[in-house]
Amino acid sequence: MATGNCPLAIFVVWYARNIVPLNCLRTLSKTAQFLTLQCGIIGSIIFAAHGCAPYVITSHQFLAMDFISSNAAALSPSLTLAVTNRAKEMKAKGEQVFGLAGGEPDKDTPENIKQAAIQALQDGATKYTPSAGLPALRQAIADKLKRDNHLTYTPEQICVCSGAKPAVYSALRATISPGDEVIIPSPYWVSYPSMVELCGGTPVYAQTKPENGWKITAEEFAEAMTPRTKMIILNTPHNPTGAVYSEEELRAIGEVAVEEDILILADEIYEHLIYGEAKHVSIASLSPELYNLTITINGFSKSYAMTGWRLGYSAAPDAIAKAIRLIQDHTASNATTFAQYGAIEALKGDQSFIGDLREEYDFRRQYVYDRLSQMPKVKIVEPMGAFYFFPDISAAGLDSLSFCERLLERYKVAAVPGVAFGNDQAIRISYCTSLDVLKEGLDRLEDFCRKL
Ligand SMILES: Cc1ncc(COP(=O)(O)O)c(C=O)c1O
Fold first, then answer.
1. Are residues 258 and 140 both part of a single domain?
2. pLDDT, position 180
3. Residue range of the domain that includes 51
4. DSSP conformational letter for 265
5. Contact 206, 185 (CB under 8 A)
6. Where does residue 183 fall: left (phi above 0), alpha (psi -120 to 50 degrees), or beta otherwise?
7. Domains of the chain: total
8. CB-based pocket (< 6 A), ligand 1
9. pLDDT at 9 over 50
10. Residue in 81, 159, 245, 302 to alter for ligand 1 test, most ligand atoms within 8 A of Cβ
11. Does residue 20 share a domain with residue 161?
12. 94 or 18: which leads in pLDDT
C-alpha cells in the first residue's frame, strides 16, 4: 500500500483527538516527515495504548501543524461567531431560535445604494481601482468627515478598505512594532487584542467600571501606561457596552495622550447610532495635537446596513496614511470596485435611512432597557449608542459562557458571553432584531433568570 509519491499518507491513531497533547502530535508529525522523506514509507499505522476510538489523520494534517506561525497559533476562535454559528446550526435543524446575538442591522441596504452598485457593474466597473480607493469615494469621505465630524482630511489621507475591520488591522500594521503596548479599555470589541498580537504588539487591558458607564477615565489611562505604550484604542459608541464618550471625557483622555505622545485609534463605526442627549464627538477634531496622533476608523456596515459589502476606511496623518496605503498596496490591492460606487451613493445620496434606523433602534433600546431593568439577577447600565446591552449576570452564579450555553440549549435564546469581550460576568444582548423576537427572547431570558 505504500507508494512513495502518495501525498495523503494515512495514519490510524488510537488516540482520541482531544487527549493528545499538541507537542505529542508535533513529535508524531516529525516522525511522519522522517518516514516519508527517509524511508519512502507513506502508509504508517500507529497504535496507541489507550484503547480509544480510532481517529484518522492524513499526513497533510500532521505536516500542516508545523507550518502554522506562532502568531496564528496564538489566535483563539471568536466566541461571538461560536454562539451565532451554534444558533445557525440549530435553526438549520428546524429549531426556532430567538437571536439576540447579532452584530448587524436587521435591515436591507437602501435601494439607491444597491442601484448605484448595479449600475456601476453594468457600466463595466470590474477592474482594479487605486489601492486606497476611487478618488471620487475618497473625496466623498473627506466631505463627510468635514460635514459630520469637523475633520479636515485630504483624499490622500484616506484609505478605503474591505470593511472597518481590515481598516483597523492595516492601521495597527502601519504603527505597531513587536514589543509595543496597546492600551485596550476592557470590555472591548473582540478583534482588537488578536489584531494587536498579530502585529507582534502586546494588548494591555484597562478595566472600565459600570459606575463610570464602562468608559476609561483619563486617570485609568495614565495608570495603564508604561514606557512601551504606543497607542490606545478608543471605540465610541462602544461595542459591547453601548457607551458613548462625551467631549469632556475625550478631552481629558486626549490631554494624557498628547502629554505622553500616545497614538489613538478612534473606531467610530457606530457614530450614527446614538440616542437621547448623547452626541458623537471625534477625538481627532478636538485639537491639532490630537489630530496628529489619531487614526480615525469608520465604515458603511452599521450606518447603511452594508455589512456584506465589506467597506470601511481610515483617515490619518500623512505619514501614517502613506504606510496604510502601502500595506493595502501589497495585501488587498483595493476594496471591491463596484461596491465603492455604492458607497459614493451612500454618502452623497438621501440620508433619511440613518435617521429612520436610529429612531427605530432607540424605540427598541428603550423597550429592552425597561425589560432588563426589572429582570431578576440582572444589572444594567443604560447604553447610549450602538445596538447592544451589556447586562451583568454575575448574580446568576454562572460564568458567561455557561450562562449563554444554557440559555441557548434550554431556552433557544442566543446571546454572546461577555468573556468574548473580556468580561466573564456579563452577556451581550443585541437589539438589531424585530420587536417580536426581542419580546419572546426577553420573556425567555426572564424565565431562565427566575429559575436559576
Ligand atoms: C467596534 C467595531 N469596529 C469595527 C467593526 C467592523 O466593521 P466592518 O463590518 O465594517 O468590518 C465592528 C463590527 O462589528 C465593530 O463592532
1. yes
2. 98
3. 10-67
4. E
5. yes
6. beta
7. 3
8. 103, 163-165, 189, 235, 239, 267, 269, 299, 301, 307, 312
9. no
10. 302
11. no
12. 94
